[in-house]
Amino acid sequence: MAEPVVRWYWQETGWQQQPPVPDRGAEFGDGLFETIRLNRDLQAPLLALHWQRLLRGLVQLDFPIDTFQRCQQAWHDLMDLSALQQLAEQPAYADGVQLKLLISRCANDLAGSNIARGYAKQPQQPANFTVLLRPAPVWLSPEQPVTAGINPVRLASQPLLAGIKHLNRLEQVLARAQFQPGWQESLMLSSDGDVVEGCMSNLYLLEDQTLVTPLLEVAGVNGVVRRWLFNEAAALGVRVTEGQIDLPRLYRADGLLFSNTLNGFSVCGQLDQHTFSGPGQVATQLLCQRLQHRLQSVFVNASGNIA
């Protein structure tokens, strides 16, 4: 049975269920999105990290200066919506809410009298706000290793877009189509052959009790859980650093971890024909259990939305 999906659109008058407004997001991928996990009480403990990345993306894509303020108003309106409260009380949402927030620049023909053409835009062209709501997935079990492979699709180098979650995810769409039977994730390389990220996650190598995650200067998404880990590393007693990672270094690692907002942390058991095993893999799995437990406790013990 297909999982329920709810779609709402925001204007200054509030959230409504209405047909989508044509915009440059659909035309050109001109926009951003954040996938935010809410607990059953509609609390979003990592929301401040989502706002930080979103703000950077709005600056990178040159949205009007009031877009972030309007987005926060839309968020507060959403959290006050009785229909959202009723949704979260349904049995399907027992593990929380998966909320996808899309911010896209409105279409040129809606931008006013001075209509831009083609790729051009007006300086104050406003944004549209959309949310997609689904039941949050069950947290991954760190005791069950993930099977992955090296994806044949390479990530293009574009420093102006690196780190942010823009709407044009065609590389990930192409990469997901290349998954082999049994893969739960795959590693994506840069055009130079360096490891960047998973198709749907950030990744970390365990080397001599230190987690090393790829640099994201020219490609990749700076994940919310990735940044949470950097912020919490000292409290967790974990050493985390960034570095350039090629395939030989990857295969020499003690183990490999993945992370994303919806699933938390998972450990890789097999990468193509390479099996992670021995004491290094045991250490990686124990670390994964500790990180996943701490992240889940943040959602369970959340005292309110961070906004």
Automatic annotation (TrEMBL):
InterPro entries recorded: Aminotrans_IV (IPR001544), Aminotrans_IV_CS (IPR018300), Aminotransferase-like (IPR036038), BCAT-like_C (IPR043132), BCAT-like_N (IPR043131), Class-IV_PLP-Dep_Aminotrnsfr (IPR050571)
Domain of life of the source: Bacteria
Keywords of this entry: Aminotransferase, Pyridoxal phosphate, Transferase
This protein's record includes keyword Oxidoreductase: no
Cofactor: pyridoxal 5'-phosphate
UniProt cross-references to SUPFAM superfamilies, sorted A to Z: D-aminoacid aminotransferase-like PLP-dependent enzymes
One Pfam family from the record: Aminotran_4
MF-aspect GO terms: transaminase activity
Family: Belongs to the class-IV pyridoxal-phosphate-dependent aminotransferase family.
Protein name listed in UniProt: Aminotransferase class IV
